[in-house]
Write a structure and sequence with these properties.
4 strands; about 45% helix; about 120 residues; alpha+beta
Length: about 120
């Protein structure tokens, strides 16, 4: 008797399980596409981030009148349909003001509220 002749266990995924995973994936991609952040969403995040970085609260009028329009004009958005990558000049790098506009901070934007510095 051959010990290797044992019946092999079949390890196939069930068709219903694959279909359910596909449906969940399509729904997740749809939600990502619908909630892809805009430049306005990023400007709001950047204004809040600036307040945290300064350690003090900016008056709401200053944030609305100065910071958000400035970020909107400086931000570059690369739209990848399910997420966006935003680029801003690195204002903490002194070479930015000397003429090197390639020094940039990049952020990955997801779900209109999550921005991750890359």
């Amino acid at each position: 008797m051959d010990p290797y002749a044992e019946r092999q266990v079949e390890r196939r995924a069930r068709p219903g399980r694959i279909r359910n995973m596909f449906i969940v994936l399509v729904i997740l991609l749809g939600v990502l596409a619908l909630l892809n952040p805009s430049t306005d969403d990023f400007a709001e995040y950047a204004a809040d981030d600036l307040q945290e970085m300064l350690g003090q609260s900016l008056p709401d009028g200053v944030s609305q009148a100065v910071v958000r329009p400035l970020v909107q004009s400086l931000a570059e958005r690369d739209n990848y349909i399910i997420f966006s990558v935003f680029s801003l000049p690195n204002i903490q790098d002194s070479s930015t003001f000397i003429g090197d506009i390639t020094a940039k901070k990049r952020y990955l934007g997801l779900f209109k509220i999550f921005f991750i510095e890359l």
